[in-house]
Write a structure and sequence with these properties.
The complex is a heterodimer of chains A (about 500) and B (about 100). The radius of gyration of chain A is 21 Å and the shape is globular. With about 500 residues, chain A is an alpha/beta fold. In chain A, about 35% of the residues lie in helices and about 15% in strands. Chain A starts with 11 loop residues before the first helix and ends in a 16-residue tail after the last helix. Chain A has helices at about 10-20, 25-45, 50-65, 110-115, 160-165, 185-190, 225-235, 275-290, 305-320, 340-350, 355-370, 375-395, 420-425, 430-435, 470-480; strands at about 45-50, 80-85, 120-125, 175-180, 195, 215-220, 260-265, 295-300, 400-405, 440-450, 455-460. In chain A, strands 1-3-2-4-6-5-10-11-9-7-8 form an 11-stranded mixed beta sheet, with helices on both faces. Chain A has 2 domains: about 10-260 and about 400-485, Alpha-Beta Complex (Amidase signature (AS) enzymes), CATH 3.90.1300.10; about 305-380, no CATH class. Chain B has a domain at about 5-45. Chain B has 3 helices and no strands. Chain B has helices at about 5-15, 20-40, 75-80. The chains are: A alpha/beta (about 500), B mainly alpha (about 100). The interface between A and B is large, with 72 and 49 residues.
């Protein structure tokens, strides 16, 4: 491959350092990224748009700035990718949907601008489940990204392409969005780090809305220290989003120990439905944290079993409202229907939305409709409170909660495609945290063997509200005491 | 699937401005019934004295200073519309006369 030969081996922190210390250049790094994408992405389908010329031009200007001695940002020359529900001026953001085909936002999201201001180089936009609705990437109207550990399997969803792009080492970091687990679950299934911050840490301005009280921009990285770095760049107050908390950017903790941390182990997450091999790896990981000086406390989160129905009522209700804006007037292809305004809107939506999006709009419309509103929607909001109360009670006696991220390793593409209930259940370990608005990371913690393939397992570490830095510190300490994140998939003939 | 599942789906589709075909409506009706059945456990929980959780932060009534600022350029915003006349979005006629 052309460009900087060590590219796939390094995380964002090391790459920026190598560029700024002139061991390589932004141009050589970007060439390496583009070459790797060109060689391997035809098999992985991570990207729907690769911005080759723009990335090269930007790398050249970053190299010139460095040569002139101008100040450099913390991500100087580091390539990254964005999920296709994020706005960058003039770059197609189709949200995995035909209804937004060709949409080119007139502005750049502030969380993207902050990355660009630190010298990061956008190399492309990635495939995703349509409107972030899905757990496998298969609901994309364009392409389902593949898991580099086994091309027959999903890299998880809905941030499938952004996950695959980091897992395949096309880019050292990317952004996804996590509404019910859409970054943590893929991170676990593809052996990388995925972090959903406390709700409100990162502005949602420029993120296409799905479930507004749940959606959070959430990064994928190769290493936990990169996660701390990326979070410290993109988090913090923003006047464009009234739900964004008025806080300074996240400051990583200096400590490199977990000594004395009390880890709650919720029995509900280790019940039936958890794959035995996944359980073994997660328990070993918790044992490792104990070896490193943490203690464990058995806890109960008794409303966990209600999280899936609660989530699918709340999220679909919010989605049905948010997606009302796709009416063939302001963006996307229009279908004339019978020529009337209502006929045009219905025909446009019928042609533009895929089956899962329609299913969720129907569910959400139903639970909000007259006669069902109190029985479903208001009731779900009350159960959501009970789920949050479970966590609040647990965090009176523990500092963090540790559990699996996903009940199974990566499943096969097609395996659950025709069974929405089974697909919804793959989110069972991530949605409670989303409903509660809490920070949670998935960090690689081991492997299982399935049909001769080695598949990654993720450990989920959940913190109390605003304890994002503590969550990431624990992930970093765990990672530096283990070697799971250094393991590389064996894409045949692809090398690493 | 029961007839009532199918009726619910058709009525809801109308509310949601979705124009489902018969086969699509039947498939959704069947899935709808299964999904709602799986969600019925919510009804079994006692939530009598629980305050609904409407958002994930404690923020409320966030306001900004009421001053004018530059907004997005009209031509750039209109550029995404399937039909526009340079100043306005163009939509099918909705009131009066023949459309």
């Amino acid at each position: 491959m052309s460009g900087f030969a060590d590219y796939p081996k390094l995380d964002a922190t090391s790459l920026a350092d190598a560029i700024v210390s002139k061991r390589t250049s932004a141009s050589a790094v970007v060439e390496a990224a583009l070459a790797r994408i060109a060689a391997l992405d035809p098999r992985l389908s991570a990207f729907h748009t690769v911005l080759g010329d723009a990335a090269r031009a930007r790398a050249r200007s970053l190299d010139e700035a460095l040569a002139k001695g101008e100040p450099t940002g913390r991500l100087h020359g580091v390539p990254f990718a964005l999920k296709s529900n994020m706005c960058v001026e003039g770059v197609e953001t189709n949200c995995g949907s035909k209804i937004l085909a060709g949409y080119r936002p007139p502005y750049t999201a502030p969380f993207v601008q902050r990355l660009l201001d630190e010298g990061a180089v956008l190399v492309g936009m990635t495939h995703m489940d349509e409107f972030a609705m899905g757990s496998s990437g298969e609901n994309s109207a364009y392409a389902a990204a593949r898991n580099p550990w086994d091309l027959a399997r999903t890299p998880g969803g809905s941030s499938s392409g952004s996950c695959a792009a980091v897992a395949a080492r096309f880019v050292p970091f990317s952004l996804g969005s996590d509404t019910g687990g859409s970054v943590r679950q893929p991170a676990a299934l593809a052996g990388i780090v995925g972090f959903k911050p406390t709700y409100g840490r990162i502005t949602r301005y420029g993120l296409v809305a799905f479930g507004s009280s749940l959606d959070q921009v959430s990064p994928f990285t190769r290493s936990s220290r990169d996660m701390e770095l990326v979070m410290s760049v993109i988090s913090g107050a923003d006047e464009h989003d009234s739900t964004c908390l008025d806080l300074a950017p996240l400051e990583p903790e200096r400590s490199d120990s977990v000594r004395g941390l009390r880890l709650g182990v919720p029995k509900e997450y280790f019940a039936s439905g958890l794959d035995a091999d996944v359980r073994r790896e997660v328990e070993a990981a918790i044992g490792k944290l104990v070896e490193l000086g943490a203690t464990t406390v058995p806890i109960e989160l008794p409303h966990t079993e209600y999280a899936i129905p609660t989530y699918y009522v709340v999220a679909t209700a919010e989605a049905s409202s948010n997606l009302a804006r796709y009416d063939g007037i302001r963006y996307g292809p229009r279908k004339p229907g019978d020529g009337s305004l209502q006929g045009m809107i219905a025909a446009t939506r019928e042609a533009g939305f895929g089956p899962e999006v329609k299913r969720r709009i129907l569910l959400g419309t139903y639970v909000l409709s007259s006669g069902y509103y109190d029985a479903w929607y208001v009731r779900a909001l009350k159960v959501r409170r009970l789920i949050r109360n479970d966590f609040d009670r647990a965090f009176e006696s523990v500092d963090l909660v540790v559990c699996p991220t996903s009940p199974t390793a990566a499943f096969k593409i097609g395996e659950k495609a025709d069974d929405p209930v089974a697909m919804y259940l793959s989110d069972v370990m991530t949605v409670p945290t989303s409903l509660a608005g809490l920070p949670a990371v998935s960090v690689p913690c081991g492997f299982v063997s399935l049909e001769g393939k080695r598949l990654p397992v993720g450990l989920q570490i959940i913190g109390p509200s605003l304890a994002d830095a503590r969550v990431l510190r624990a992930a970093r300490v765990f990672e530096s005491a283990t070697k799971h994140q250094a393991a590389i998939y064996s894409l045949e003939g692809a090398g690493a | 699937m029961t007839q009532s599942d199918l009726d619910i789906v058709k009525k809801t589709a109308k509310l949601a401005r979705l124009e489902l075909g018969e086969a699509e409506a039947a498939k959704f009706g069947e899935q709808f019934g299964r999904i709602l059945h799986a969600f019925e456990k919510l009804a079994k929980l006692d939530v009598a004295n629980v305050e609904p959780m409407t958002g994930a932060t404690a923020l409320s009534d966030v306001v900004r200073d009421d001053r004018s600022k530059p907004s997005l350029a009209r031509e750039r915003v209109l550029a995404n519309a399937p039909k526009q006349d340079g100043e306005y979005y163009d939509v099918p006629k909705t009131v009066g006369g023949e459309s």
